[in-house]
Automatic annotation (TrEMBL):
The modification 2',4',5'-topaquinone is found at Y461. SUPFAM superfamilies: Amine oxidase catalytic domain, Amine oxidase N-terminal region. One of its GO terms (biological process) is amine metabolic process. This is Amine oxidase. Keywords: Copper, Metal-binding, Oxidoreductase, TPQ. The gene is Aoc3_0. The active site is at D376 (proton acceptor), Y461 (schiff-base intermediate with substrate). It is an enzyme of class 1 (oxidoreductase). It comes from the Eukaryota. Its cofactor is Cu cation. GO terms for molecular function: copper ion binding; primary methylamine oxidase activity; quinone binding. It comes from Psophia crepitans (common trumpeter). Contains 1 topaquinone per subunit.
């Protein structure tokens, strides 16, 4: 072997050793951490979104101090107030009138004064009532004015007030007192003395205005498991309308298909062997129906979405911006999420997009279930939007925002991390094309969406509220229902009203109807409503006159009055309904945004029902009206406890006014019929239980605005698709090969309960 060969082998050996050393040194080393790059900041907002901002805890506290010192009446803390007391029920922001806001945002006018809306219960007065005050200016109030008559046309009677937490405590005490009158029956039916039974309210409360009489349904309570699936068959009717708690009484008892005058009457019937008792064993936590405890140890981690260079959206105060979008966001403690001044590429598309109400209407052969029509705004859709669980309710790396409220207390409360914002990769092209003829190329764009989300827990149900903003200029609004079904004790012909989901549990049928307000301003405030649909016309073939052809054609119509623009639920509606500007795009078409509803709603309550006017918004899948400052919401928190004389009746909004070149509002109802089944245990799943609507540009632009997205991909057969310069997807390996920064998992959602 000559020297040259030896040297070559030595060099090769050294190179091999060096390579092995490099591998050994790098094996097991974590990839470098992702380097966050701040998103491009836009100064267009410049703090203007704060005109819509929710109150801060400091502002709420200032309002409470002002009211305590300036109303001239004694105020009890609402958390401890008796019905015969005066108290501050809630404090929220009073959003200024639209004209004032637009003069400030667009006309260079002064910022409107910041004000609060305070709701007070006056029980310690000769004429008990609910009064609403506007208090301002913040942060240091010096005035208040009563706006109750201005808003509602008269005083709000005291019986319409929502039930407070303290009232429920007193009702529970009364029920426990009554249960003690039937010890032998409770021991036989439920292995209970009554103290370990959970009590669930129903609503509305009676049969006529002034009633405050509520059925309460009793369940076995098991720690760590939803009690909603364990009814014991016992329901009680409580009259609690008197200002003095000592005068409340239990009016009726229901058990297993029969009614009794009192618990004592039921006990006597039991002792006389006149009650058909279903003897239930007290469920154990590990075997309880509906337990959500994991049944298997954790597996390998699921896929994780993360941003290699940090979020591409920006959140400042109450404003989020993302790839041309800007949105002011907030949360009404009663009605839930609300968005304002939604702009795309600098142009306002929507002035207000807000949830109005969520109705759950039940059927059953038990009194509690058959009489339940929950109007969740009365309970507090925003108030009960609790902390979101990082990595499950929202992506782990989402931005989480605290929300503050003052309800039934003089101390502001915080639901921390109760709203999340994130960019979502839908794993679906927004648009794409593979060309296999003429020239060979591929072009496309990923469907990445900005999402604003909150989740409300309203007794048994959890509603996932999503507001999504697409690169095409479209807005998507979506709600999913999950959580526990409500149930009745199974007896008699129970399957006429649902399905049996447990040994003695009837999953009761119900409707979910959700209502939204959409104040579209398409290329300005003045819009008209345009519809398009299709028909077929039979024509002779121009090139073969002896033959005919069915030719599709467009039917176009402008709807000029509100009555024509009120589309009844579950009736045919034009497939294209658009808010149109008087101005045109490049091709001569009116700049428009289309409303596209995705819903599977059940039947609306018959209009002959004495409570139907309180939910008359549910008559319509879509209704378009003139915008009026005196019609800010489609319902009221006072409708729940007096639906027979509703404080706000949406049907009155539709009075056949002209809607051509006017400031218009779209009121949209979505929903679905839910017949619970075995697979709803332990929880209803979100799959198939989502509804909503789209607001889509329709000739608003001259082409799809997503062509300007920096995420667009294009390469041809003549290019090297694997080269970073030709294809941004080829750049992912060097730019995204990093470890995401994951903050430690913490959860404080149980703190304010």
């Amino acid at each position: 072997m000559n020297v040259k060969t030896v040297l070559i082998l030595l060099v090769l050996a050294l190179a091999t050793i060096f390579a092995l050393v490099c591998v050994l040194l790098t094996r097991g080393r974590a990839p470098s951490a992702c380097q966050h790059q701040p998103p491009q900041q836009s100064d267009a907002d410049d703090g203007q979104s704060l005109v819509f901002a929710d109150l801060t805890p400091e502002e709420m506290a200032q309002v409470v101090r002002y009211l305590r010192g300036n109303l001239g009446v004694q105020l009890a803390d609402a958390s401890r107030a008796k019905p015969s007391d005066n108290c501050i029920a809630s404090v929220d922001v009073q959003v200024p009138a639209k004209a004032e806001v637009l003069w400030f945002l667009d006309g260079g006018g002064a910022r409107p004064p910041r004000e609060a809306l305070a709701v007070l219960y006056f029980g310690n007065q000769p004429d008990p009532n609910v009064t609403e005050y506007v208090v301002g200016p913040l942060p240091t109030p010096v005035y208040h004015r009563d706006v109750t008559v201005q808003k509602y046309g008269g005083k709000v009677p005291y019986h319409r007030r929502p039930v407070t937490g303290r009232e429920y405590v007193d009702i529970n005490a009364l029920i426990q007192q009554e249960l003690r009158k039937a010890p032998l029956f409770l021991a036989a039916c439920c292995e209970s003395d009554g103290t370990d039974l959970a009590i669930l309210t129903t609503a509305p409360r009676g049969f006529k205005s002034g009633d405050r009489v509520t059925w309460f349904v009793l369940f076995h309570s098991v720690a760590g498991t939803g009690y909603y699936l364990s009814p014991v068959g016992l329901e009680v009717l409580v009259e609690h309308g008197d200002l003095h708690v000592s005068r409340w009484r239990l009016r009726r008892v229901f058990y297993h298909g029969r009614y009794y005058a009192s618990m004592g009457d039921l006990e006597d019937a039991f002792r006389a062997n006149l009650v058909e008792v279903v003897r239930l064993q007290k469920p154990q936590a590990e075997a309880a129906l509906g337990s959500m405890r994991p049944r298997h140890p954790p597996g390998s981690p699921a896929p994780l979405q993360y941003e290699p260079q940090g979020p591409r959206y920006s959140v400042r105060d109450n404003c989020v911006t993302f790839q041309g979008w800007s949105i002011a966001f907030g949360m009404n403690p009663n009605s839930g999420p609300r968005l304002f001044d939604i702009r795309y590429r600098g142009e306002r598309i929507v002035y207000e997009l807000s949830l109005q109400e969520a109705l759950a209407l039940y059927g059953s052969n038990c009194p509690g279930g058959m009489s339940t029509r929950y109007l969740d705004g009365s309970f507090g859709i925003g108030r009960f939007a609790y902390e979101l669980v990082r990595g499950l309710d929202c992506p782990y790396t989402a931005t989480y925002v605290d929300r503050h409220y003052l309800v039934e207390s003089e101390t502001p409360k915080t639901n921390q991390n109760s709203l999340c914002i994130f960019e979502h990769d839908a794993a679906l092209p927004l648009r794409r094309h593979f060309s296999d003829s003429q020239s060979l190329y591929y072009g496309g764009l990923r469907k990445n969406t900005l999402v604003i989300r909150a989740i409300s827990t309203l007794i048994n149900y959890d509603y996932v509220w999503d507001f999504m903003f697409h690169g095409s200029g479209a807005i998507e609004v979506r709600v999913h229902a999950t959580g526990y079904i409500s149930s009745s004790f199974f007896h008699g012909q129970g399957t006429d009203y649902g399905n049996k989901v447990g040994p003695h549990t009837l999953g009761t049928m119900h409707l979910h109807h959700i209502h939204y307000k959409v104040d579209l301003d398409v290329d300005g405030q003045l819009n008209s409503l345009e519809t398009q649909d299709m028909g077929y016309e039979l024509v002779k073939d121009p090139w073969s006159m002896q033959n005919t052809i069915e030719r599709p054609y467009l039917r176009r119509e402008r709807l000029e009055r509100e009555d024509k623009a009120a589309f009844r639920l579950n009736t045919p509606m034009p497939r294209y309904v658009s808010f149109a500007s008087p101005r045109t795009n490049k091709w001569g078409h009116l700049r428009s945004y289309r409303i596209q509803v995705i819903s599977f709603a059940g039947e609306h309550l018959p209009t002959s029902s004495p409570i139907e006017r309180a939910i008359s918004w549910g008559r319509y899948q879509l209704a378009v009206t003139r915008r009026k400052e005196e019609e800010p919401t489609s319902t009221s928190i006072y409708n729940q406890n007096d639906p027979w004389t509703p404080t706000v009746a949406f049907a009155d909004f539709i009075d056949n006014e002209t809607i051509t070149n006017e400031d218009l509002v779209a009121w949209i109802s979505v929903g679905f019929l839910h017949v619970p089944h075995a697979e709803d245990v332990p929880n209803t799943v979100t799959v198939g239980n989502g509804v909503g609507f789209f607001l889509r540009p329709y000739n608003y632009f001259s082409e799809d605005p997503s062509v300007n997205s920096p995420d667009s991909v294009y390469f041809s057969s003549e290019q090297d698709a694997g080269a970073c310069g030709a294809n941004p997807l080829a750049c992912l390996r060097p730019t995204a090969a990093c470890a995401p920064h994951l903050p430690p998992f913490r959860y404080g959602g149980f703190l304010n309960l």
